[in-house]
Amino acid sequence: MLANLLGVAVLLFQDQGGGSAGAPGWDIRSMWHTMDDPAKAVVIILFIMSAWSVGIMIDRWLMYSAARKQSRVFVQQVTGALRDNKLDEAISIAERNKKSHLAKVVATGLSEFQAASAQVADEEVIEAAKRALERSVAIVHAEMKRGLSGLATIGATAPFVGLFGTVMGIIGAFKGIAAQHASGLSAVAGGIAEALVTTALGLLVAVPAVWTYNYFTNKVEAFDVEMDNSSMELVNYFLTRRGGRK
Length: 246
Description:
Blueprint: H1 2-17, H2 28-34, H3 37-83, H4 87-96, H5 101-117, H6 122-145, H7 148-180, H8 185-245
């Protein structure tokens, strides 16, 4: 669809130039100079939206990659520490893997379990640890989702911003007809080309944003499942540990 829109815009610009040597060419500078102020404003807004979405994509990709990598290391190391009932060592391992979503949750649960064991009755220790784990999962989930709403907003609104440029380009085309008292494709080619270009740019910004939003949302859902499973396993560990003491 983008290729079709751009192809039609090329033909319109060629027709507008009439094939003469001084005709405006199909390049960024020529297109920019032929646009009126509303069309230029639309292009600038779309450029800002594109830069913003790319920044979110890079930031989330780095965060998720680091979380996945450190979580693998954390799980391997913390399993042995918990098997030997070395809670302090397990907490230290979690602190060394601060980018791991699992390490954040497990460290919170272990710290609360240790603190509650010294302060409250046995039957309240597990409940205190559960509440701490739930809070930690919610906090990490919010951290993982940070910025994704921006991608969703860009994906939903960029086509409409491009459509606004389309409307303004068509309005400019009809103004050109009225001012020149002329008709035919050459009288409206510039305005229609602007309209097609802004529409194409809007789609070009929106499509990657929607794709990456869906991809990252699936990633966050997978992280949520892993955190929930880790929380349940940790609660079972606490129950076994308290039962063993009795």
